[in-house]
Design goal:
Layout lengths: L14 E16 L2 E16 L8 H11 L6 E9 L2 E5 L6 E2 L14 E12 L14 E9 L10 E2 L3 E3 L3
Antiparallel strand pairs: 1-2, 2-6, 3-4, 3-5, 3-7, 7-8, 7-9
Length: 167
């Protein structure tokens, strides 16, 4: 028996959903003693109707030249818990990055879905660049959005809260 499977009908504007968040604390021995850092790994599920997620390195360089901006295709905002309420932090540097691979090769559009992992590092001795962080048991959550090659912006999702700088 053979069965036909039809392609899913996703929007050409990417859609994301929060999947999970993980925390890994590592220690390294250096000249000045032990250095600790927390790596936060955020995972989102995605769907895109025409499959135009991700850029090659060359495509990103060309786009940055034409827009004159440090374009990000994986946008992350940090929210820090203060007095029981989450407040958006505005780091000096943009927090986020780019989706550095094309998920679908070739020029034929078509639906794709999957997961994207994004990692952010928080060093125990270097936290002053992110406002509102104290460096001791900070509770944070992240707001995530992605953009495709047509610069269509997805919906925004938030992670569950996580405690960093706790060890």
């Amino acid at each position: 028996m053979f069965a036909c499977v039809s392609e899913p009908d996703f929007s050409n504007v990417p859609s994301i959903g929060f999947n999970k968040i993980q925390l890994l604390t590592t220690e390294t021995q250096g000249l000045l003693g032990i250095s600790k850092k927390d790596s936060v790994i955020m995972t989102v599920d995605f769907q895109d109707g025409d499959g135009d997620l991700g850029f090659t390195t060359e495509e990103l360089a060309k786009l940055k030249k034409t827009t004159g901006d440090s374009l990000q295709t994986f946008i992350v905002n940090i929210w820090v818990s203060k007095n029981g309420k989450f407040v958006k932090s505005n780091p000096k540097e943009k927090f986020g990055g780019n989706i550095p691979i094309r998920f679908k090769q070739g020029s034929k559009p078509g639906p794709i879905e999957g997961t994207i992992d994004y990692s952010a590092t928080f060093e125990y001795n270097v936290f002053q660049g992110i406002p509102l962080l104290t460096g001791k048991k900070d509770t944070v959550k992240f707001e995530i959005q992605i953009k495709d090659r047509a610069l269509n912006a997805s919906n925004i999702v938030q992670t569950t809260p996580i405690v960093i700088y706790s060890k």
